[in-house]
Amino acid sequence: MLTHPSLRRLSFHTRISRRMWRHIAMAAMLSPLLACSSEPTAPPTNADDAGTTCPGVSLPGGEDADFSSVSGLFVPMSKVRAELDKGARFVFVDARPSGDFAMHHILGAISLPFFDASVCAASLPLDVWYITYCGCPHAESSIVAKAIIAAGGKAKVLDEGYIAWKEAGHPIYPAASVTGTDAGS
Fold this sequence. Notes:
This protein is globular. The chain has helices at residues 5-34, 77-85, 98-103, 117-120, 139-150, 161-167; strands spanning 74-75, 90-94, 105-106, 110-111, 129-133, 154-158, 172-173. The protein has a domain at 74-173: Rhodanese-like domain (Oxidized Rhodanese, domain 1, 3-Layer(aba) Sandwich). The protein is built from 6 helices and 7 strands.
């Protein structure tokens, strides 16, 4: 037991310091979930990108989607939903880190984190439209869309982003329901 007052004070400050560091660590873990910056920074990678795993793509059936009539990089959610409702062929690409994707994402999306886009974009099939999204709603998804376009593919950014898609009640995984079932089943 600590008896000297200065030792008791040291113990008190050490406990506060530990508590403070736990709060700082928790804030650092949660900050990517709450918002994203306008200038995302990539985590450090090695020079040969040997640790990068690129996503596989199962191309959906149906007629090709028509996003070519939309000028610029951004496509409105209403246009994407209209193409989805008519069974058009396109692929959603989640540009957020894979941990965010694992928690929830647009139903049928593939995960291609923005920091892997330059490495993985060339491995994607080029004969389909890609609709990229993030929670920002533009910073991370724009990086992925531009990488796909640079690799010779066709891509647009979901203008309103993931949060607006989810709040509009469009299909996500896992579904926001009591049963916890998939929105598409």
